[in-house]
Design brief:
With 331 residues, this protein is of the alpha+beta class. The protein contains nine helices and 13 strands. It has a single domain, classed as Oxidoreductase, molybdopterin-binding domain (Sulfite Oxidase, Chain A, domain 2, Alpha-Beta Complex), CATH 3.90.420.10. 43% of the residues are buried. Bound molecules: the ligand Nc1nc2c(c(=O)[nH]1)N[C@H]1C(S)=C(S)[C@@H](COP(=O)(O)O)O[C@H]1N2 and molybdenum atom. Its cofactor is Mo-molybdopterin.
Length: 331
């Protein structure tokens, strides 16, 4: 997905270079005070590397058990890249905009509501979200539709635990998700030039059986600690066999419904982004191939890390969810 105000811009997956990772990383280091004159200034003078002199986010350590069975042993993308090369258009369309603009994003108090076609609607506070569910670490591949990928150690719990808790009605068939709408905090929601011209709040959806699949995670952390705001604090969805845009960040509501819910990127360009968005090397995006991806790992500017993309991002156990479906039609 490219910035929407440049419709003539043609996306090439090779545009996503190590330079952009480097630049993003540099901005993180800068923001942490490791680069430039800031490192030499006194505390008072260097306070407020982030916008508007507000304090930067600090991650809290979380307790978890590691799920080896559902984790990949591929090399993990370093923390600095996971947290500085992001898509979170509410904070800007550039890969390093979220880390620059989201540091003072308020996650406490928070309110996450599970409602709709359920017997017991529930609302979770920030503390409920972090404490109510036993956390697992799962190292998943994340494959963005833009043809780059990462390997990320998420902390979270299965979405099916949350949904079961609310007791879905037999008539529920889909799950609709919504990101916080707060233009005061999210510059991209105030200004369409910053937010890429997409309609906010960001919304996503899954079929109920996809939502109940054991791989589908609600994540509250990465690398053993709470999620940084740029990664979707305090809680975001992670669906590892689908393109990254399905993994909606900073979720405030989860609504069970009997109709396929609208999804942000599908609304914007239905021929480019479908409801299903399963990773599929055989179905090209209209403007680029999905046959391979650029794996973002450690390594410098010129490291060669283009790899073949696997169907369902390698999570072949989800194939039974789609038997008898034409995945070129339901892309
Ligand atoms: N609310 C919201 N959720 C979002 C996005 C966004 O712009 N807004 N971007 C999506 C895209 S395109 C990707 S690839 C992943 C990126 O997650 P990460 O930055 O934690 O790697 O978040 C997804 N979730
Ligand atoms: Mo993405």
């Amino acid at each position: 997905m490219t910035k929407q105000f440049k419709p003539s811009q043609t996306f090439k997956s090779s545009d996503i270079t190590d330079e952009s990772v480097f630049a993003a990383r540099r901005s993180l280091l800068k923001s942490m005070g490791f680069l430039g004159a800031g490192a030499l200034l006194s505390n008072s003078a260097s306070a407020g590397w982030f916008s508007k002199d507000k304090p930067a986010f600090t991650a809290k350590t979380l307790e978890f058990t590691r799920n080896d069975t559902l984790s990949t042993d591929e090399s993990m993308t370093p923390y600095a890249k996971v947290t500085s090369y992001n898509n979170f258009y509410e904070f800007g369309t550039g890969k390093d905009d979220p880390v620059e603009n989201a540091q003072s994003f308020k996650v406490d108090p928070w309110s996450l509501k599970i409602d709709g076609m359920v017997r017991k609607p529930i609302t979770l506070s920030y503390d409920d979200i972090l404490q109510r569910f036993a956390l697992e670490e799962r190292v998943y591949r994340l494959r963005c539709v833009e043809a780059w990928s990462m390997v990320i150690p998420w902390l979270g719990f299965e979405l099916n635990k949350l949904i079961s808790f609310a007791e879905p009605l037999g008539s529920a068939k889909y799950v609709a998700f919504k990101t916080l709408f707060d233009p005061k905090q999210m510059p991209g929601q105030r200004n369409p030039f910053i937010g890429g011209g997409i309609e906010y709040p960001y919304v996503e959806g899954l079929r109920l059986d996809e939502a109940m699949h054991p791989l589908t995670l609600m994540s509250v952390g990465v690398y053993g600690k709470t999620l940084p705001p740029q990664n979707g604090a305090p809680i975001r969805l992670v669906v590892p066999w689908k393109y990254g845009f399905k993994s909606i960040k900073s979720v405030v509501s989860i609504t069970l419904t009997d109709r396929e819910p609208p999804t942000t990127w599908n609304r914007l360009a239905a021929h480019e982004y479908g409801f299903y968005a399963n990773v599929n090397p055989d179905v090209a995006h209209p403007r680029w191939s999905q046959a391979s991806e650029r794996r973002i790992t450690e390594g410098g500017l010129f490291s060669q890390n283009r790899i073949a993309t696997e169907k369902f991002n390698g999570y072949h156990e989800v194939a039974p969810l789609y038997t008898n479906m034409d995945l070129t039609r339901y892309y």
